[in-house]
Predict the structure.
Amino acid sequence: AEDGRHHTFHRRYRHGACLIQKRSVFAAACLFFLTFRLYLTHSLSLFSFLLLPSLLLPPPPLLPSVEQVKKFHAHDCELTPEKLKTLIEMFLRGTTCIEEMWLNNNCLGDEGVCLLADAIKTSTHLKNLYLSNNKITSDGCMGFAEVFKMNHDLRRLSLCQNPLTEGGPDGFQAIMDALEENEHFNLTHLYLSNCKLGDVQVRALVAMIDTHMPKLEHLEMNHNSFTDPVAVSLLKIVEERRKAGGKFCCLIDQGNPKVSKNILEKFGDRNGEFWPSDSEDEDDSAMLTLATQQ
């Protein structure tokens, strides 16, 4: 009887071991099948499969195509005229629809701004252009005058921190002369702070604002060198447009050493925006930004 029980135990043990072995083979086969299917689905190597947690990470964002870019920001990137040529071919030729370019604090100089002016003078897409601190002098103004003469769609322009009268007054006067020929100039925001503008230049600008810039809403003239009589003429335009129900903001601070404090106070509060964008509520997926070059 004892031998019979021993025989039955061994038989059941062998049966259980065989069953475990079959189930192990089945489990291994299932695991291999799932692994192979995952490999085919995700085009991963078996080594990559070991890094399974990486599959849970979101995919990297895709850069917009050139045709999709509407905003281009390149601050402090040491852009030179040679590099600018490439950007012009990418964003200002063909089927591109770039609406805003920030090129502040670069090295475009007069040559670069002339290249840019030639590209945008008949542009129907570009609305906002920021060129602060690019070493633009009177020669650059001569080339950029074509924009004031031919462009009908530019809305915001910044030429701050450029010595526009360095090399003579002819460049800024060329801009004023070109503006006189453009009956459909639609600029609404003009930034001319720290541009070394004196009485002659600002007096000519005041005359153009009065006769050829009816849509101008925001003028920034901080840190220049004009005197009280010219400041008063600016103030007169501000008051006239506000009385007519228009919106006009002119910023002049005490960086203008020749304008007395009592005249500055008459300009009132600083209503209006400082660096706004017409399209700042748009999807940032349409914006391309170059990293600052160290």
Observations:
- The beta strands are 71-73, 100-102, 128-130, 156-158, 189-191, 218-220, 249-251, 287-289.
